[in-house]
Amino acid sequence: MTYQLKVIKDYPIGFWTLDETSGATAADISGCGNNGTYVGSPAANILPLVSGGQSGTKITNTAYVTLPVTKDYYGATVGAGFGTKYTSDNDFTLEVWINSSIDSSAETPIFADDTNDIGLFWDKGYITFKISSTEYLTSPVIYSKKVLHLAAKYTGESITLYVDGVSVAYKALNNFKFTNTTLSLQLGPNTTSGDEFTVDAPAVYRYALSDKTIINHYINGNITSPESIRFFVSK
């Protein structure tokens, strides 16, 4: 089973392969119609980060991708349906593959709403999952310039961060409520010229993926050929 089919069978509300070779639209293949937009023409002529993919997408300080989730499972425009003050009870999971070359000490949004401090960030050699400026999880990146599979899960009662299929940080929540009224996810941009990261196959689920599903996604999408390892280390 291809990685794309594996993800589709787990019913994401947004899934972007980022395999376009032209145009400004990042197609959502989940069937929900949450298409994104390429801003600043991110480079896509590089190797994919997931098995079966066609290309990775390079994020810089001027090239990034907006991925608003504004439609539900029926394609109706109803807002994000998660991660806002109106939907604090709704579980969700964010998932993405990255290969980073970020040296800046500034926090960089990987797959996040930077304005509202929600999502996955790179912060001084750490991966951070935030649901607000005060509620977050962090985990150090032990090996730099390595392809990483990231997943972040919110249940209303807890948050969990996964790296390469493994739970690396967990926090129980006590009556947490989002305060933002909207949610606008993006891949990047970086804050500093010269910093970059390659990204692939971001997905959003309107429920909490199980530990088993997350590790299966990592195993199914992982590229382990020597050619791939040499390519990504040399970036």
Enumerate the spans where pLDDT stays under 50 for 5 or more consecutive residues. Answer: 225-235
Pattern of helices and strands: HEEEEEEEEEEEEEEEHH
Helix fraction, binned, reads 10-25%
| Helical segment count | 3
Q: How far is the first residue's CA from the last residue's CA?
A: 29 Å
Q: What is the rounded Rg? A: 16 Å
Shape: globular
| Strand-pairing-aware structural class | mainly beta
> What profile does the largest beta sheet have?
7 strands, antiparallel
Number of strands: 15
Beta content comes to 25-35%
Mean pLDDT reading: 91
What do you see in this structure?
The chain is mainly beta. It has helices at residues 3-8, 211-221, 226-234; strands spanning 14-15, 25-26, 36-39, 57-59, 64-66, 92-101, 108-113, 118-123, 126-130, 136-140, 148-154, 158-163, 166-172, 186-187, 196-205. 11% of the residues lie in helices and 33% in strands. Strands 1, 4, 6, 11, 12, 13 and 15 form a seven-stranded antiparallel sheet that branches. A four-stranded antiparallel sheet has the order 2-3-5-14, with no helix packed on it. Strands 7-8-9-10 form a four-stranded antiparallel sheet, with no helix packed on it. Strand 7 and strand 8 (118-123) form a beta hairpin. It is globular and about 45 Å long. It starts with a helix and ends with a helix. Mean pLDDT is 91; it is low at 225-235.
